[in-house]
Amino acid sequence: MPETLKDTEAAKGATTEATADALTAPAVANAKAEKPRSLWSDAWHDLRRNPLFVASALLIAILAVMAAFPQLFTSADPRYADLANHYLQKPNWTHFFKEDWFGYNVQGRSIYARVIYGARNSILVAVVVTALVTVLGTTVGMLAGYFGGLADTLLSRVTDIFFAVPFTLGAMVVLTSFEERSVWVVILSLAFLGWTQIARVARGSVLTIKQADYVMAAKALGASTSRILLRHILPNAIAPVIVVATISLGGYIGSEATLSFLGIGLAEPAVSWGVDISSGQEQLRNAAFVLIIPSVMVSITVLAFIMLGDAVRNALDPKLR
Questions:
Q1: Which pLDDT score is estimated for 12?
Q2: Which residues of the chain have pLDDT under 50?
Q3: Distance between CA atoms of 116 and 78, rounded to whole angstroms?
Q4: Residue 308: which H helix or E strand, with range?
Q5: pTM assigned to the model
Q6: φ and ψ at 266, to 5 degrees?
């Protein structure tokens, strides 16, 4: 009889263990199937579900296509002037995507066509300046943060000198020294003064990362300085730089428009929103639409990039999740 009870208890124990194994097997299998996600995969997972990111990315994509292929949006010539028939002609809001949709300016040019073609120079300036300041600022910040000592002191003081110069005032001084202010002159002038913020961000990030265990292990294994910087430090320090660069991109569009409005940036025959804002200020009282429409385009574009930068910052910063 005792043996029968023991057999029964053993059978119950085996059944319980089998049931537990059956319940835990799927969980273990799912745990093995799920791979650990990196910072970038987590960020992309959050960004895809962020309405702010989706809306700003969609708007920026439309602006990019408009800048690259303006012929898809209008067949009008932005430089063609017809003073006799179109002098300050008011917008016709029912003629969607037509030449007279936004009216005509003081030279009899289609404002809609100039808005479409003006996106190219405005966005080109912002994108190229952002790329240049990101490369220059990240390089300076990485070298200063990684080597420290005298190199850090010299590079940091140079950064402070440039940072102390007011950005718009410094760009005005640089641009007035050129007789011809083409797109590339404006780009180089803005990049010459705009790299300091990214340099500071990169330096602070590198100062934290260079103390990490994987960097110490790479040094102990005899990895070269360039390999440590490019393979270990840069990929882990680039996240805050990307956030600052994305937000700054919208600011450079505003800077180009401001300088053109002041008559120091791009000028005729270049087509840009800043040039149109500058030429439309004299008609503010009797034809405000000449000034307001390109100004609205600048505001929408800057807002789109700022929204994108905020979404990227929230996704890359674990403290904000």
A1: 45
A2: 1-33
A3: 9
A4: helix 289-316
A5: 0.81
A6: -65, 150
